[in-house]
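Pilot study result, target chain (384 residues):
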Amino acid sequence: MFIYRINDFIKKNLKYNILLTIILLILLQLFVLYFSFTTFFEDFYFKTIGDKSINIAKTLAKNDKIISSIKNRDFSNNDYIEEIRKDIKCQYIVVADKDGIRFSHPNRDNVGERFVGDDYYDVIQKGEPYFSEAIGTLGPSVRGFAAIKNGEDIIGFVAVGYLKSEIKDQLKTYRLVLVVYLFFMGLLGLIFSNFIAKRVKKITMELEPFEITSMYKENSIILNSIKEGIIALNNDLAIRYNNRSAQKICSNIGISFQELIDNIKNDLVFSKTNYGNIRYKELNFNGKKMLISANSITNEDEMFGFLLTFYELDEVEKLRKEIQNMRKCSEVLRAQSHEYSNKLHMIGGLLQIGAYDEARNFILKESENFHRMIEYIENKISMV
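Predicted structure:
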């Protein structure tokens, strides 16, 4: 139940909805980056190490001292080769003849022994450099091979190796750097997402989506219930909103919204003293008159467009007649009220002096006159 309440709260709260969405996107991006590193980058790094080992092996295979040691069966150059190995920071450099007999090795006891692994045969047979992954005396490694040649004859090979354990330690360092980088990138994304969420809330005047929807529906109902035609325009005089009354009035007169706007746009745009404001301008379309007003829509001195309100003058005339009739009715009621007030005063006076018979006769007479008048009106109505 608690989880459902939290979920409902997040859905209704725009700020947290935006925050959660952006955070999920950031986490997805961070996961993709980390996954890409642990797969594609590691493969690329292993290949880079392999290419590096090939280049070193090719360079050493052309070293005159190494070539001479193979030709003369000289096993005394191990220290020289070890110095080179330490300078280039690889785990081993093995110089061997075409039978695989080692002339150098980081472990001096292995000098004179046979090279471990059968992945050197291709370099002896084809003479092309390459790298492979194999298990040697020092453990699993990536090693590059290059042929040692005496003229056109292959007399041996150089193997330059990097232990996989060392490579993985380097990758762990890079991975740690990546994690730190992703952490700060995620933190920065969180800060920016919070800023964006606050900015959106400010733009929506701190209203939640359901509140905006509710307000929109309410305003739409209110505007459509108004008898006046309403049209909202932007600064380019493009229609942003119109209510049903606007459609009805323009349909009755026989004009389109654009014809109405074209007729008054000069008054809207080019008026210098009363920019964007028109008060009760009378227009004539197809023999029918319309009364229109316009006001500019501004917020903090920034103009967003214009609001037009209009109605047919025929409707105004109908309203005027209705008001006149109401005034006449009011005058008649006032006169009747005054007359009945006098009659009540008269009845009150007769009762005060004890003239009960006269009061009773007066009431009966007035009642008889009232019924006669009602009967006369009913007869006149039935004759129509």
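One observation from the pilot: Residues 1-6 have pLDDT under 50 and may be disordered. A full batch analysis is planned for the follow-on phase.
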